[in-house]
Amino acid sequence: MPYLSLTEEEKKSMLGQIGVRSFDELIKDIPVSLRDPKIVLPSSLSEPEIQDLISKLGRKNTSTRDALSFLGAGSYEHFIPAAALEIVGRQEFLTAYTPYQPEASQGTLQAIYEYQSLMTELTGLDVSNASHYDGATSLAEAALVALKHTDRPRLLVARSVHPHYRETLCTYLAGTPYTVEEFGFDGKGNFNREEFAAKLDPGVAGVIFQTPNFFGNVEDLDGVSEKIHANGSLMILTADPLSLGLFKSPGEWGADIAAGEGQPLGLSMEFGGPYLGYFVTSRALMRRIPGRLAGLTRDADGKRAFCLTLQAREQHIRRERASSNICSNQALCALAACAYMTLLGKKGIREIAEINWDRATYLRGKIAKLKNFEVDLTQPIFNEFRVRSKRPFVKVEEKMTAQGIFPGVLLESFYPELKDQFLVCATETKSKEDLDRFVEALAQC
Amino acid sequence: MLISQDDRLSFEKSKPGRRAIRLPEERYSGEDPLKNIPQGLLRQTSIGFPELGELDVVRHFINLSRKNFSVDTHFYPLGSCTMKYNPKVNEWAARQEKFTALHPLQDATTTQGMLQILWELEEYLKEISGMDRFTLQPAAGAHGELTGMMLVRAYHASRGGSTRTKVLVPDSSHGTNPASAALFGYHVVEIKSDSHGCVDLEDLKQHLDEHVACLMLTNPNTLGLFEKNILEITKLVHQHGGLLYYDGANLNPLLGIARPGDMGFDIIHINLHKTFSTPHGGGGPGSGPVGVKKHLMPFLPGPLMERTKKGYAWASPSPQSIGRVKLFHGNVGVMIRAYVYLRVLGKEGLRKVSEAAILNANYMKEMLKDVFKVATEGPCMHEFVLSLKSFVAQGVHAGDVGKRLLDFGFHAPTVHFPLVVPEALMIEPTETEARETLDLFIEAMKEIALEIATDPERVKTAPHTLPVRRPDDVLAARKPILSYRDQVREKVLLAEAVA
Question: Strand pairing partners for A385?
């Protein structure tokens, strides 16, 4: 059997040394009625066979490399530097355990510390955790922090926040004394200021916004944090981290917590995961942060060293009194993001944001000229925007897919009122030829 | 061997003007973002990322990796963590562009190969565990527990059971169990272990009443013992209207040997990153699929998959579903690895895994029992716990032995857990280790026992051969420095840190 080392002879001699006659004596505590269940599984595959099977299954997929894809909506196609892939593939990172033994984990710990440092730089906030499962769960944990910190029962969330995030938040809070209330968006898809202001009352623990929001709009959050803070509530912002190379950071907007999806920072789309939840807060909320934190300290010989810190918040110490039940983080994904951001560097992070903006802006301008499609050229965007099709989108999608183009994500499936509207995303992965080909194909629809 | 002369942070190695990645210079739109975008939306502050060349970055990270222990370089006898070998063919499969370059919202007709993997993985997990349906969404074991508690609550609520406010956990349970239950306002009640280390049936009975929502159990438990009264336990809890939750952290010794579903569990989570060989990645990503029996299926998070004549597709969730617990479909990359592992094991290999895991653990326990006190009697399953209480007189604690083992090239066992054993050292060799490795570890343990008698200081001040020695976690918590920004503000730059 692969992956097993004991020979038959070794097994026999080990049983002898243990002092039992047969293996069954070792599992005598298992009631006989439970033993040897009938399990239907396929036969074992050799390595050439499994490689062949995987290749065959792979060929049943049309990947975004086979097609020309303009899908976004929370998962984005970006280039990943070859050096970042090599770093993440390093087995000493990949096959290591959680760094509870700091002496045996300085590599992972320093990388997490650097990830935390990069995230504070990017978001303009003070304290980053070592990462969370994904954007949706990170945002849900942020909501829990706001509820506990303010000891108030209600959350406000903009309806322009990613539908999966809102659904996850509702799942987390169902059956608890806490409630979630939404406020809508205007005709351009930006959050409705009047409704937000009207719903902000002393029962509100926190208010959640997304920018660029689910429609790709960069929200104008001017004056928002002042209103929220005057009400004694917390402002929670989820932002595409790559957009922060160009657009105002959560810190600049006055947010208390930035929580969201780190996938654009060098992680492949991988059919939806594993991704990376980032979680960054103001210093005032430091001791409420869920999940792991790496900190700088000194070792017994006075040398600089890293270790997990503020563990008194965590489940393995506090059990039922822990601030969160979270145990793992997405350490390898955080490492990927860390390597990606380090490779991009100070200038690269700004350039990549500009290129994304440029590609989407170019594409939107071209689509604006088509007679069967409408876009709003005045709305500030990052790398994604809303298009309304004058013909049924299903027909458009069918025609495009046949030509090997994934035209975008239908908004109607998330917002029934946005009939035949779809989200189009263009990142640095698209050449001018790609974008022109897409526009030509749309023109035929 | 010196790993690197330069232990600075990437930020400290930065030099203005250095670049690692060149990006396209051409712009298509002809627009200047600084003019086109309203000023009020533009970032005003600079981003203090380091500036380094590609070799600088690569060497930085590769040298960091060399400061890690890992399964590929070291033996990890880490109890309850199942640090088995992570097969390379799993990695090969998960890195195929045909999977990594799939967008989660692609039309199902373009992802049939991917969906087939997820469908079949669910089928295999159902077979192995004896459950009726799985959600693959949960991202980790603790996330699975969270999902499980939501299912418990939804199930009781559907039966008008809002008075079920208690969740029972054994005193030997993982910390995530009570933490997960408490998140939903459940009153957590600890059940005592009996003198053998199993659930104390009498204590359990005393806490069973109409308020019990659920009993969370790890089986084999964290002492490495199979709960031999398991059928009695599940019957009792069910008689009182409670549900049974199986924490799958210790599933590794049961593959093909016994199934949680047959024991009477209603809900289970499985850690793909333990039993199903996917790498731990330094703390994640994992994957924690949650399986249920028929009566809980309507409550599962959606969407679930369905198989129709046209192929695999996502079905709309049942109206009673608790709703989504995560973005998109879960940690798919981890699932691909687990799928490959199960196809390679096949029906022939499944049981052999567990047999070898149990054999290895019993062998180590037997070889160590004359030197260290074993916390339990009789054979163990895949792990066992030593109590080092008798060494406290010499001032040596379980954690010290763990640290000293690092000098011998072994990762420390799980220390000071479970909490019911004083000075616990929890050892799980897994099935993938060779006997020679086990023997080397046993020798190291015996040598350390000798050292404790002759030179306890050597053990108390270990490790002596690693890049750092006993980082001061009290200092780290008292004055948290959590980023380079903190360092600059607190002026804890390299020179001060060293001094």
Answer: A424
The predicted model gives A393-400 an average pLDDT of: 95
A327: pLDDT strictly greater than 80: no
CATH class of A68-80+346-443: alpha beta
Distance, CA of A228 to CA of A230 (rounded, Å): 5
Please give the ipTM for the structure prediction: 0.97
- Residue B220 preceded by cis peptide, ω within 30: yes
Report pLDDT for A313. 67
Model pTM score:
0.97
Facing residue for A218 by CB, picked from B41, B93, B482: B41
pLDDT tens column, A237-285: 999 999 999 999 999 999 999 999 999 999 999 999 999 999 999 999 9
3-state secondary structure of A296: strand
pLDDT digits (tens, 9 = 90+) for B362-378: 999 999 999 999 999 99
A118: nearest CA in chain B? Answer: B49
SS (H, E, C) chain B: CCCCCCCCCHHHHCCCCCCCCCCCCCCCCCCCHHHHCCHHHECCCCCCCCCCCHHHHHHHHHHHHCCECCCCCCECCECCCCCCCCCHHHHHHHCCHHHHCCCCCCCHHHEHHHHHHHHHHHHHHHHHHCCCEEECCCCCHHHHHHHHHHHHHHHHHHCCCCCCCEEEEECCCCCHHHHHHHHCCCEEEEECECCCCCECHHHHHHHCCCCEEEEEEECCCCCCCCCCCHHHHHHHHHHCCCEEEEEECCCHHHCCCCCHHHHCCCEEEECCCCCCCCCCCCCCCCCCCEEECHHHHHHCCCCEEEEECCEEEEECCCCCCCCCCCCCCCCHHHHHHHHHHHHHHHHHHHHHHHHHHHHHHHHHHHHHCCCCEECCCCCCCCCEEEECHHHHHHCCCHHHHHHHHHHCCECCCEECCCCCCCCEEEECCCCCCCHHHHHHHHHHHHHHHHHHHHCHHHHHCCCCCCCCCCCCHHHHHHCCCCCHHHHHHHCCCHHHHHC
Architecture of domain A82-340: 3-Layer(aba) Sandwich (3.40)
- Summarised one tens digit per residue, pLDDT across range A300-318 is 999 999 999 988 766 776 7
**A347 contacts B51? CB cut-off 8 A:** yes
Residue of B nearest to A344 (CA): B21
CATH fold of B90-344:
Aspartate Aminotransferase; domain 2 (3.40.640)
Q: Does B53 touch chain A (CB under 8 A)?
A: no
pLDDT-based confidence at residue B118 (cuts at 50, 70, 90)? very high
pLDDT over 60 (residue B499): no
The pLDDT value given to residue B340:
98
Smallest CA–CA distance, residue B390 to chain A, in Å, is 23
Q: Exposed/middle/buried for B436, CB within 10 Å: 0-12, 13-18, 19+?
A: exposed
Give yes or no for B160 touching A (CB within 8 A): no
Q: What is the pLDDT of residues B54-106, one digit of tens each?
A: 999 999 999 999 999 999 999 999 999 999 999 999 999 999 999 999 999 99
**Residue among B26, B187, B482, B485 with most chain A CBs within 10 A, to mutate:** B482
The per-residue pLDDT for A316 is: 73
Q: Spell out the domain ranges in chain B.
A: 10-65, 90-344
Among A33, A168, A304, the residue with its CB nearest the CB of B498 is A304
Structure tokens at A291: 């999940």
Name the residue ranges covered by the structural domains of chain A.
68-80+346-443, 82-340
- Report, as an integer, the average pLDDT of B456-481: 95
- Dist. CA B436–CA A434, nearest whole Å: 57
- For helices A135-150 and A163-173, give the axis angle rounded to 10 degrees: 50
- Measure in Å the smallest separation between the Cα of B192 and chain A Cα atoms: 16
